[in-house]
Input
Amino acid sequence: MLATAVAGAVVIAIQVADEPNSRPPDAVAYLLGVITGGLLLARRRWPLAVLFATIATLMTYYILEYPGIAAAIPLAAALFSAAVAGRFQWALLVAAVFVIGGLFARQSQFNMSALPVINAVINDVALLVSIVLLGETLRSRRERIELAAAEREREAARQVTQERLRIAREMHDVLGQTMAAITIQAGLADDVLEERPAQARAALRSIRESARQGLGELKGVLTILRGERDQPNSLAQLDDLLDVARTAGLHVDKAVSGRPRPLSSTLDLTAYRVIQESLTNVIRHAEATTVTVEVRYEPDALTIEITDDGSARRQPVAQGFGLAGMAERVSAVHGSLDAGFRPGGGFRVHARLPVRAAA
Output
């Protein structure tokens, strides 16, 4: 589309150009105009070559003494492509050469007075330099985005590796000894089942006890992996939770309304986890700068609402302890959860936890 637009603009400029004592435009002139635009088809792969080829095509047109046309349109596209590709110095050099060449051409060939020449040069400088700087800015921005994406991928891979190692250590340390004991007792029971049934029954009872102990240990491991450690989490620690979000760079507003009162441990933990997971999702996915946490103590319910001003249009719906995990927690205390994008932008999580049902 860009190549077609530039070729069309150059052809139209040739057709409407009116310069005394110039060579009338013919098929060669229009062909050069089409070539000038067509060169842009290769601008992404060979940006510098396209820039020099564009200059050569324009110079050929001028040498053949066709009616003068402004070089800004075809040259601007080629300069922009070169700057985006990282050829900033070449782009500036070419722009400077054309500005100086245009200055001498207007002064000597067209016998223009000083003021119009100065105005024309200023216009050329402003246009071409702006194009080059725009291309360099876009290149720098793309480079920063790519570097940030690569860093995020490396950090994610590192975290995944660390998490796998942590899980492996937990499972080995906690379950290894239990499973070894079960294996030994099972072998003993098999050996003495017919000759010494009493000893076999004792071994089976030992297996049952080891299995029960192993299940308890496994539950403890899963509790650790899911973030539910021994320390009691409750709304009394809400400020500490919000401080973590502030440390991550968010501006956090807290609003508590109603008369605070003691809650059941289950409901208190559920409310804490809903806020915790919502803030985690905001930090990870929402690209937000501000988040608001509202806690309302109503006569028969506790209402929680977390809103952010994020710009991300797709927030991953995590399984386990993501939105699905929050819904499971809220449902367990007979509450309701509503989560989704707000019409004005950002994301909203609204949970209502009945106090009587959870008590």
Observations:
- The two ends are 67 Å apart (CA to CA).
- The mean pLDDT is 76.
- The beta strands are 251-258, 290-297, 301-308, 336-341, 347-354.
- The chain is about 65% helix and 10% strand.
